[in-house]
Design brief:
16% strand; globular; single chain; 9 strands; 262 residues; alpha/beta; 2 domains; 6-stranded mixed sheet; Lyase 2-enoyl-coa Hydratase, Chain  A, domain 2
């Protein structure tokens, strides 16, 4: 594993992915993009995995683009810029398609591309003093590749403001807008993340994956006959599955489900 990304496995069911460039506030470059892509491609194949924690070492979560990387981009042709942006877009999509929930752990600055990573998380926990910013317009740029995820997480109206103004906003504001799910102090951040991880690990592993896919697939869809039939099929499938039958039996018989011992 590349040194710019640290992967730890505290258990077979849990992975922790850490941005590991604290000296540059975990800023993006080509190496980070490639390492995150490889890491999440590998994790997506792990059938035992139930949750991924995405965090960062140091004082900042992610400050956006690395300065040296930006200097290199300044001399790129249109074709080189297009290829470079495509790698970032593909990395974000790879994380978004992770079949298990991603719990984001945010401290310090969360800027530009870092906001893309935060927006992808299924559950986002942030320190109350964390700061968010879609800073691209200050540089004459735009947050294009991260925009599908940011707009989904932050909402269209708030995205309109913060993309065009490039203003900083607080974790408290991000929480009020629904992007941040939980606020914590620096002393309670890890404990709160651990509580959420434990909750996810205790849920039915197939059901949790199916719930994540369900939200993605029904979001924004018209509630028509096709969607009603599809949702009915999905609940029938999982009710008839081994996990669904075990979950119902364990509930009715007031005993732990068998996946808790696996």
């Amino acid at each position: 594993m590349s040194e710019v990304i640290e992967l730890t496995r505290p258990s077979a069911h849990v992975a922790r992915v850490w941005l590991n460039r604290p000296d540059v506030r975990n800023a993006f470059n080509d190496e980070v993009i490639a390492a995150l892509t490889r890491t999440f491609e590998q994790l997506a194949q792990d059938k035992d995995l139930r949750v991924v924690v995405l965090g960062a070492h140091g004082k900042a979560f992610c400050a956006g683009a690395d300065l040296n990387w930006m200097k290199a981009m300044a001399g790129y042709s249109w074709d080189e810029n297009r290829a470079d942006a495509q790698r970032l877009a593909d990395m974000l999509w790879t994380l978004d398609q992770c079949p298990v929930p991603i719990v984001g752990r945010v401290q310090g600055d969360c800027y530009a591309g870092g906001m893309g990573l935060a927006a992808i998380c299924d559950v986002l926990v942030a320190v109350e003093g964390a700061t968010f910013c879609l800073s691209e317009a200050r540089l004459g740029l735009l947050p294009a590749t991260i925009s599908p995820y940011v707009v989904r997480a932050l909402g269209a109206q708030a995205s309109r403001r913060y993309m065009v103004t490039a203003e900083r906003f607080s974790a408290v504001q991000a929480h009020a807008l629904g992007m941040v799910h939980e606020l914590a102090t620096p002393d309670t951040l890890d404990a709160r993340v651990d509580d959420i991880v434990a909750t996810l690990v205790n849920n039915g592993p197939a059901a949790t994956r199916a719930c994540k896919a369900l939200v993605r697939d029904v979001s924004g869809q018209p509630i028509d006959a096709e969607l009603r039939a599809e949702t009915a099929r999905r609940i029938a499938d999982i009710r008839a599955s081994d996990e669904g039958r075990e979950g119902l039996a364990s509930f009715l018989n007031k005993r732990p489900a068998n996946w808790l011992s696996q």
